[in-house]
Design brief:
The protein is of the alpha/beta class. It has 8 helices and 14 strands. It has a single domain (2-266), classed as Ribonuclease Z/Hydroxyacylglutathione hydrolase-like (Metallo-beta-lactamase, Chain A, 4-Layer Sandwich), CATH 3.60.15.10. It binds zinc ion (2 copies).
Length: 269
């Protein structure tokens, strides 16, 4: 089954341009150097006896989610997967509201797949949505669901791939021949087995200078070689990395992703 993976945002937590910064990348005229907060959208046509329908899963709803959904023409969401509960990955959850009303009329709330740790933060921040006492009538019709090792959404299996983000163990995801790993500072040995035979690997790479909770380009290149995917796409990029200049120095199989980039993926197992 064919799917399409769209990079809704490829920037680091502060976005690029970064507020108040006049550096070459933040003032660049190249649209590839404008990066919203990190998020991805997977779409596929579900094949069933009714002739099929387009399905859409979002990974992380950061503070730019509304703008990203508008750009991508997103009209329905079947599920959201969360990698972890840092602000740049969750603060757009409330913008699911109008789409959740559509989903609710069609059958039920939008499932949000999250680890217990992530769910706890979401419940605290969005108390008016999740609390059993919530009375706000226009709250998002969403429902937290535990993130299992494998979660099946309308014929596509999302495999959880644990990665390290500083001292936290967070979630990456594999679907068919592609994987999305963001905010990575380390990959546990067991996770490499889940990443065999990939066509497309999405991996975060912040900049060249080391950071305690994010990989450098150099580290990402090392994992990319070991995993051996045909294509590696770097995301969660800070303003230290200019699109053109950085791409020129990368091996052919590795490229910086950019906002709006869509790649074809096979979502069947
Ligand atoms: Zn992040
Ligand atoms: Zn800058």
């Amino acid at each position: 089954m064919e799917g399409r993976l769209t990079f809704l945002g490829t920037g680091t937590s502060m976005g690029v341009p970064t507020l108040g910064c006049d550096c070459a990348v933040c003032t660049s005229a190249d649209p590839h150097d404008r990066r919203l907060r990190p998020s991805a959208l997977l779409r596929w046509n579900e094949e069933n006896s009714n002739g099929g329908r387009e399905r859409a899963v979002v990974i992380d709803t950061g503070p730019d989610f509304r703008e990203q959904a508008l750009r991508a023409g997103l009209r329905r969401v079947d599920a959201v997967f969360y990698t972890h509960a840092h602000a740049d990955h969750i603060l757009g959850m409330d913008d699911l509201r109008p789409l959740s009303f559509v989903a609710f009329r069609e059958g039920g709330p939008i499932p949000l797949y999250a680890t217990a740790e992530t769910a706890e933060v979401l419940e605290r921040i969005y108390d008016y949505t999740f609390s059993p006492q919530a009375t706000y009538p226009n709250r998002a019709r969403v429902q937290l669901e535990p993130l299992a090792e494998r979660n099946r959404i309308h014929g596509v299996e999302f495999l959880r791939v644990p990665v390290l983000h500083g001292g936290m163990k967070i979630a990456g995801f594999r679907f068919g021949n592609a994987a999305y790993l963001t905010d990575v500072s380390g990959i546990p040995e067991e996770s490499f087995e889940l990443l065999e035979g990939l066509e497309h690997l999405v991996l975060s790479a912040l900049r060249h200078k080391p950071h305690p909770s994010h990989a450098t380009v150099e580290q990402a290149l090392g994992w990319s070689r070991r995993i051996g995917a045909r294509h590696t796409w770097l995301t969660h990029i800070a303003h230290e990395l200019g699109h053109e200049e950085t791409n020129r120095a990368l091996p052919d199989s590795v490229r910086l992703a950019y906002d709006g980039l869509t790649i074809p993926v096979s979502v069947s197992l």
